[in-house]
Amino acid sequence: MTQRFLRVAIALVCLTATTAWNDASSAVAETTLGIGDKAPALDIEHYIHEDNGFGKVEKFEDGKVYIVEFWATWCGPCIQSMPHLVELQNKYRGEGVQIVSISDEDLETVQELMEQEYPGKEETFAEVTNAYTLTVDPDGSTTEDYMRAAGRNGIPASFLVGKTGLIEWIGHPMELDEPLADVLADRWDREAYKEQMKRQEQFQIAMQKVNQLAGSGKFEDALKVVKKVLEDMEGADDPRSNLIREQLTAFQYNLRLDSGDRSEEVMTFFRDQLAEAKKDARELTQFSYNMMASMQQGTDLGPLAGETIAALKDAVGTADEEVMPIMYVLIAQMNASMSNFDEAIANQKKAVETSTGRTKERMEQMLEQFEKMAAEEADGDQDAEGDKAAEKVDAAK
């Protein structure tokens, strides 16, 4: 029962975590839209802002550059990306750039969010996002034409449409700066990026296989696949390939830890990572989430668990308003994984206190789950004590 509730709780954390910044582990679907393809026309039902100087986009005009971005009200990383989209739109407003952000939720849901105050700002979501084109397309037709066609399963996701109406780049909106600047300056190397994307897809396919093997407890086989991918990437020297190489190297150590390897080499690797992560609250959140996920899968972290919790406790008091509740959640989750329910409940209460809106509702749900888990644990202990007492009585007879 405890593990089932933990899985539910982790799913809730994923909705608000600041770390879901790519969909590299998503399933790779068959794609019909890629780099260099003609961008599908936008068939959008509702435009939220109609007084910001931008009109509806019924076709992509030659010479203009468009960013077609997909988001949702429940997606924490999407919310965090909004100020960056505002910054980009304002920076390039006079250079023929238009950002069109699309949610496939219903209009009422999005309008409800627009009326709320944006975290950390004295402005509503409507005021913050008024700089660019925010839209709602509840029938999901545009999502189908872009996200599904491109095999993208994670949001936020952005499609950069160049001056000739072709897809030039696909990725996370926080990584838009360089490709957008290069496209505007006519120095973007589409074919080189297309090759990078091909390697990324191969990486995703390999990671699916690795995750399947690791999920079946075949850690040695999973490590062999990772090693083979790294060998195949030898000679590739571009930012995306270097990032993949770095991720795979880290993943090798994760596999070793999950397999029960707590050698000095493995522990030193993670302690070095933790020391580096302590320098930034968001990096620490990412590291701690990974540790918590391993614990959820039954990995014994040894002293790393306590060291990670201690680092979170040291940092949470000075974290910003967006990260603070997630850090409390992680402290609660890790303690719950070790059946330290008093600590889990105390920190989950702090997560509730530091949250607002729908996030607070999710935090309250998780608190109820922890309280139920604690009660079940206590009932189990009482039953065990009762059984021991009965055994002693029987023995006395």
From TrEMBL:
<protein>
    <submittedName>
        <fullName>Thiol:disulfide interchange protein TlpA</fullName>
    </submittedName>
</protein>
<keyword id="KW-1015">Disulfide bond</keyword>
<keyword id="KW-0201">Cytochrome c-type biogenesis</keyword>
<dbReference type="Pfam" id="PF00578">
    <property type="entry name" value="AhpC-TSA"/>
</dbReference>
<keyword id="KW-0676">Redox-active center</keyword>
<dbReference type="InterPro" id="IPR000866">
    <property type="entry name" value="AhpC/TSA"/>
</dbReference>
<feature type="domain" description="Thioredoxin">
    <location>
        <begin position="33"/>
        <end position="198"/>
    </location>
</feature>
<dbReference type="InterPro" id="IPR036249">
    <property type="entry name" value="Thioredoxin-like_sf"/>
</dbReference>
<keyword id="KW-0732">Signal</keyword>
<feature type="signal peptide">
    <location>
        <begin position="1"/>
        <end position="22"/>
    </location>
</feature>
<dbReference type="InterPro" id="IPR050553">
    <property type="entry name" value="Thioredoxin_ResA/DsbE_sf"/>
</dbReference>
<feature type="region of interest" description="Disordered">
    <location>
        <begin position="372"/>
        <end position="397"/>
    </location>
</feature>
<dbReference type="GO" id="GO:0016491">
    <property type="term" value="F:oxidoreductase activity"/>
</dbReference>
<dbReference type="GO" id="GO:0030313">
    <property type="term" value="C:cell envelope"/>
</dbReference>
<dbReference type="GO" id="GO:0016209">
    <property type="term" value="F:antioxidant activity"/>
</dbReference>
<dbReference type="GO" id="GO:0017004">
    <property type="term" value="P:cytochrome complex assembly"/>
</dbReference>
<dbReference type="InterPro" id="IPR013766">
    <property type="entry name" value="Thioredoxin_domain"/>
</dbReference>
<feature type="compositionally biased region" description="Basic and acidic residues">
    <location>
        <begin position="385"/>
        <end position="397"/>
    </location>
</feature>
